[in-house]
């Protein structure tokens, strides 16, 4: 949350500011309706946006508004009953209790949107009933995801896609899923191009999951993947340390590679833009990799170097 | 006296030729981004080594008694915004006017003059070509420079005026559905004496080698692997996979080529026929780490070069070849009898 203040004086001679004021007012009204309606119901930011598209114009305006209001009240957006719209898809036979409510996912219902969970869920909020899956497969693209759904219909595998860069919900869900099934193999299928590898990094290395009970959890998070934040004193005077960890540090990169016989698609040329992105991504990776001998990281670095060396990229088939 | 190799782990290594075992003379860690191109220049008392890393930076080293970094580079070479790629030193035949050519991701090529170990910026090619400049070679006899591009074009420049003299386009396959090029230039080489130029290009998944006449700018022909099958598609291919590197021998009679198909071919430049076929055995290395890596890591040829005759004492005066592979092996070969 940011600490900067935005000052809006109404009425003003600047139409922009008046418009902004109207936005805040409208959002406040909508949020009030939301909070005072059925308890525990939620609304997505996208839904709020569609309540008055002409006023809000852009989704980003809404996101800003809601975040501002939430932080002004000192509460999380979830407390206001607002959640981000689900983006991720899941294809699995999976039964679990989330906060004592049974969630049942079945493959014969096809791929479904990832069930909503709080972004501040705790490990104990979940109780999984289904047996441990053989494999959890994370796919970059929806098209490949649907293809794999057909292939893996009978097998005890869980397929997840965030349709590109993962949103917070997908990452959070994956985190809890993999922590509850520590024996399951987790693999990623991404394009062999700079975006695919960035998505891989997002799942595997970027510490984006905030946890507050790190030591108690039955998890083995490598130290280098966890980043501790400064402890904050809460209202009751307790110290609340929290950590940031990556969604799934044991994720394996299994494809697609630049040189992979199983891939029937040809190579594509990289553009100058790709090349520069690859260069700066390589820098990010090398800076991140402070001396930890992680073979998966080597694979990613190598894939990037090869793409640059041959001036090629390749998409999943 | 050395074979110099650079690698993607960022180190530069010098392998001694003073005896047959070719021990590692010295090594230096250059850049954690990894290195991809290296070029040498022998001067009267030392060996200059230029290398480029995946971050697009150029590094210069000097080997006399020991390997030292040369930090005194012109501002143009230190420019963080330029993304360098392939490079080539040229030893001038008459005067002390050595040249370094270095290509950039933007498609341009910069020329530097070299006096002793001091580089000074000379010029940049004035070309409309925006495609990635993938390879470069210099010819000291006629003062020419050849630059190959990602889109398959090769330009021959006059080194003095840096004007393109000839443009050779790829006649290979073109994809109608996308702008993607199927004929990336992998390597350009002038023959000793500078009359011929060999160009290794992709043709889809295959590798072709074209020979050009430099003086008149004409295609002389392609080097084609003979096939008995009538099912072979368009064009003659030299390799069943991309041809990564070509090299002329000292007198220009032979051209060696190597590709991702693990085959090294030696061609006669006068008859344009295949003289020899070297199938590199992958089983000659026993490496635990290799079994866990992906397919390309088993490819045996990334780049190759002829070595001067009589280089290593006691190994005769025949032609020799050195080949570096993606399997992290350097292999030296020498001609056994007359080919």
Automatic annotation (TrEMBL), chain A:
The keyword Ribosomal protein does not apply. The active site is at 50 (o-(5'-phospho-dna)-tyrosine intermediate). It holds the Pfam family TP6A_N. Residues 136-206 form the Topoisomerase 6 subunit A/Spo11 TOPRIM domain. Keywords: DNA-binding, Isomerase, Magnesium, Metal-binding, Topoisomerase. Its EC number is 5.6.2.2. Residues 20-82 form the Spo11/DNA topoisomerase VI subunit A N-terminal domain. Gene3D superfamilies: 3.40.1360.10, Winged helix-like DNA-binding domain superfamily/Winged helix DNA-binding domain. Its cofactor is Mg(2+). It comes from the Eukaryota. It catalyses: ATP-dependent breakage, passage and rejoining of double-stranded DNA. PANTHER family: MEIOTIC RECOMBINATION PROTEIN SPO11 (PTHR10848). Belongs to the TOP6A family. This is DNA topoisomerase (ATP-hydrolyzing). The lineage of its organism: Eukaryota, Fungi, Dikarya, Ascomycota, Saccharomycotina.
TrEMBL record, chain B:
SUPFAM superfamilies: WD40 repeat-like. The keyword Repeat applies. One of its GO terms (cellular component) is nucleus. It comes from the Eukaryota. Keywords: Repeat, WD repeat. WD repeats lie at residues 236-277. SMART domains: WD40 (SM00320). This is Uncharacterized protein. It comes from Ogataea haglerorum.
């Amino acid at each position: 949350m940011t600490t900067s203040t935005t000052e809006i004086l109404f009425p003003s001679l600047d139409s922009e500011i008046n418009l902004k004021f109207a936005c805040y007012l409208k959002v406040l009204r909508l949020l009030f309706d939301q909070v005072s309606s059925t308890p525990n119901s939620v609304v997505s930011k996208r839904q709020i946006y569609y309540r008055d598209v002409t006023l809000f114009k852009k989704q980003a305006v809404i996101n800003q508004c809601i975040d501002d209001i939430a932080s002004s009240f000192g509460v999380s957006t979830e407390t206001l009953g607002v959640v981000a719209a689900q983006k991720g898809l899941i294809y699995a036979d999976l039964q679990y209790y989330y906060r004592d409510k049974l969630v049942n996912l079945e493959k014969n219902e096809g791929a479904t949107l990832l069930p909503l969970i709080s972004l501040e869920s705790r490990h104990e909020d979940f109780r999984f009933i289904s047996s441990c899956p053989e494999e959890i497969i994370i796919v970059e693209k929806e098209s490949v995801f649907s293809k794999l759904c057909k292939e893996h219909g009978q097998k005890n595998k869980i397929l997840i896609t965030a349709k590109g860069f993962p949103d917070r919900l997908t990452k959070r869900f994956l985190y809890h899923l993999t922590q509850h099934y520590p024996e399951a193999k987790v693999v990623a299928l991404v394009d062999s191009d700079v975006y695919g590898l960035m998505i891989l990094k997002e799942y595997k290395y970027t510490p984006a999951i905030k946890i507050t009970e790190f030591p108690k959890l039955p998890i083995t998070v490598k130290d280098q993947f966890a980043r501790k934040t400064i402890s904050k004193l809460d209202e009751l005077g307790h110290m609340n340390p929290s950590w940031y960890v990556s969604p799934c540090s044991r994720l394996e990169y299994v494809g697609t590679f630049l040189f992979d016989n199983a891939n029937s698609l040809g190579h594509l040329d990289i553009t100058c833009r790709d090349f520069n992105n690859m260069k700066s991504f390589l820098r990010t990776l090398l800076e991140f990799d402070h001396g930890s001998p992680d073979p998966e990281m080597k694979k990613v670095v190598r894939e990037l170097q090869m793409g640059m060396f041959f001036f090629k990229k390749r998409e999943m088939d | 006296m050395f074979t110099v190799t650079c690698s993607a782990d960022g180190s530069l290594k010098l392998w001694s030729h003073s005896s047959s075992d070719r021990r590692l003379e010295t090594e230096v860690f250059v850049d954690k981004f990894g290195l991809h191109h290296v070029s040498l220049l022998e001067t009267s008392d030392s060996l200059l080594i230029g290398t480029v890393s995946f971050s697009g930076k150029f590094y210069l080293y000097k080997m006399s008694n020991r390997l030292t970094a040369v930090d005194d580079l012109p501002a143009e070479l230190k420019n963080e915004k330029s993304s360098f790629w392939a490079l080539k030193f040229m030893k001038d035949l008459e005067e002390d006017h050595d040249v370094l050519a270095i290509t950039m991701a933007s498609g341009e090529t910069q020329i530097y003059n070299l006096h002793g170990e001091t580089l000074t910026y000379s010029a940049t090619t004035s070309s409309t070509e925006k495609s990635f400049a993938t390879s470069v070679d210099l010819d000291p006899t006629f003062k020419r420079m050849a630059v190959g591009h990602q889109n398959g074009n090769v330009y021959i420049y006059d080194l003095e005026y840096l004007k393109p003299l000839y443009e050779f386009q790829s006649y290979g396959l073109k994809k109608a559905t996308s702008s993607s090029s199927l004929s990336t230039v992998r390597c350009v080489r002038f023959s000793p004496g500078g009359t011929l130029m060999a160009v290794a290009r992709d043709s889809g998944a295959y590798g072709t080698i074209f020979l050009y006449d430099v003086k008149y700018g004409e295609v002389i022909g392609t080097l084609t692997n003979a096939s008995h099958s009538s099912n072979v598609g368009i064009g003659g291919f030299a390799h069943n996979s991309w041809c990564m590197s070509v090299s002329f021998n000292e007198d220009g009679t032979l051209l060696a080529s190597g590709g991702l198909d693990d085959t090294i071919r030696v061609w006669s430049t006068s008859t344009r026929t295949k003289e020899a076929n070297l199938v590199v055995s992958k089983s000659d290395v026993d490496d635990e780490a290799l079994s866990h890596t992906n397919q390309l890591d088993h490819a045996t040829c990334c780049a190759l070069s002829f070595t001067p005759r009589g280089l290593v004492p006691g190994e005769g005066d025949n032609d020799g070849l050195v080949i570096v592979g993606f399997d992290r092996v350097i292999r030296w070969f020498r001609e056994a009898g007359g080919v």
